[in-house]
Amino acid sequence: MKYTVEPSEKSTVKITLSFDKSEWEEANMKAYQKTRGRYFVNGFRKGKAPKHVIELNYGKGVFYEEALNGLFEEHYYTVIEKEKDNFTAVGQPELSVDDISDEGASLIAVTPVKPDVKLGAYKGINIEKVEYNVKDEDVESELKKLQERNSRLVEVTDRAAENGDTATIDFSGSIDGVKFEGGTGENYPLVLGSGSFIPGFEEQVVGMKTGEEKDVNVRFPDDYQAEELKGKDAVFAVKLNKLEKKELPEINDEFIKDAAGAESVDAYKKETRERLEKQAKEKGDAETENNIVKAITETAEVEIPEAMIESQIDMMVRNAEYRLGMQYGGMKLADYLKYMGSNMEDFRKGYRAQAEETVKSQLVIDKIIREEGIKAEDAEIDAKLEEFAKSAGKTLEEYKKDVDDAQREYIGNDIVINKLFEFLKANNNMTEKAEKPAKKPAAKKTAAKKETGDAENAEKPAAKKTAKKPAAKKAETPEEGKAE
User: Fold this and answer.
1) pTM for this one?
2) Percent above pLDDT 90 for the chain
3) 13 with 305: CB under 8 angstroms?
4) Could you read off the pLDDT of 455-471 as tens digits, one per residue?
5) Whether the Cβ atoms of residue 111 and residue 89 lie closer than 8 Å to each other
6) Using alpha carbons only, how large is the chain's radius of gyration in Å?
7) Which of 50, 115, 333, 371 could serve as 321's disulfide partner, Cβ 3.0–4.6 Å?
8) What is the spatial distance between Cα 361 and Cα 391, in angstroms, rounded to a whole number?
9) Which domains does the chain carry?
10) What is the DSSP string of 329-390?
């Protein structure tokens, strides 16, 4: 077999595989031996007819397709391996037959390959450095959350209902004197002031006493989820069965030891501040690194093959399906799309722009790593493994026995990415903006995953409707029908 490789359009290469007469004849014989059982010829048992007899009955080219497929499988991937220093295939090729005759055959495989990147400026540019501050009130907020998590409900019998209380109620709704389906509930625990029921309902329960019955007059919102109730006036007969208030524990050293395992309130605050500061730093670093990637990607030029974009979308879709299953008890993506009035084609389109951006940033980062010769040395990988070994209570040699090449490569990639961002921060003008309050935990580092398609960090694609968990049929109750 002989082959040639030449550049083609849109980040592809044209690989021509040529087979001489003997190779072509051998391939046809293999195809005959593999498929002869498919053909029936009068006078022969099935699978026993000679090759030339089958060709006389079914045509001279009856085995050509199988023969070409066999030659492709046998030789194409060998060529890809041989040429790995010259290009990297990133998808399946488009195949066509160049020539077939008694003297031989040739195949053309147009293969999408990892494209070269024309880098723009990636040194000496202005990039915003993001920092988050941890305030005393952030620490106090965490302490308050701990207190709330350890609260309990205590029954109230000596006063009327107030906002913040949990009112256990029976209710029965009607419109023009006629009860509507799903408008009835018994012993429903309603937190007053939570806004979980339609406007005006909870406000009228405030002031009721245990055992009291009352008609609550409301109007369903014009955008209410149940079509037949939109804008309708309704009356709910309500009975207050039980009233409870939230009782918060006193914040003292004994409570902290019990609830958080810290030695004292001061110790808890110190540990909490350290945790929040670590989260704030991680969040700021992640956003800064995203700013770096965005800045250096914007000025780069690259022609991305469709196969890489589709592969990235595939990964994003798989991750979306995984998240759906985890969040909504095994919900299938097909069911989600049906509920949303969408389809897979539109769902994939929603990811396309982000997939292109992700692939481009991965290619740009990979190019800079190669241009700057950033590598992970064996000693650096071993140093990282030694950290893991100490955490596991093992020696380095003991720990390394359970580490395979793939794990070393993963650690090496992580070291390379960290080195890359150290390099980029050192070689660009990191402009500091006004400090921001630290509110949320740090996001994961997203920008520099080398060709892994880390869709965990990708935004969800736009859908036709706001994504909600499919609701059980209770839309006709006084509940507001908001997304949880």
Assistant:
1) 0.69
2) 81
3) no
4) 333 333 333 333 333 33
5) yes
6) 34
7) 333
8) 34
9) 2-112 (3.30.70.1050), 152-247+471-484 (3.10.50.40), 263-453 (1.10.3120)
10) TS--HHHHHHHHT--HHHHHHHHHHHHHHHHHHHHHHHHHHHHHT----HHHHHHHHHHHHH
